[in-house]
Specification:
Length: 156
Amino acid sequence: MSKNFVFRLDAALRQRAREEQDARMGLARAMGAYAAAQAELEALARALLDAAGVAVGTGAPFDPASRINTLYYRDRAERQVEGQRRVVEQRAQEIESARALLAQVTRRRRVLERLRERREREFLAERNRRMMVDMDELVTLRYGGSATRGEGTYGY
């Protein structure tokens, strides 16, 4: 039996730790993309408010072409806001899936860590048991040898 504990699945444990780190990085990227999409949505919403405020000046003659352009601009701004809302929802779903993946790989790593700890405790218990057996054998040999020579009970 070796003197030091060796966990044969140590490479798998390191791999799972790397997978967990990758999942953490993926979650961070997803959160960054969500924040960027949210900022873009806020900018587009401000642009939509600005577009809604655009009106023909009071007392100015009615110009159908400029009115149509204004309506087109507002319609385009509304479509951009709606499209960006869908992007923000998609980014939120990506965050949830990244969190689920992180939870899964964390569980897998923890399972191996618990197995490693249990195997190490078993190894230490077996090593201690063997040491006790060896010590008992030494004491028995010492006691047995001294008893045959008539040296007393404790072998001194």
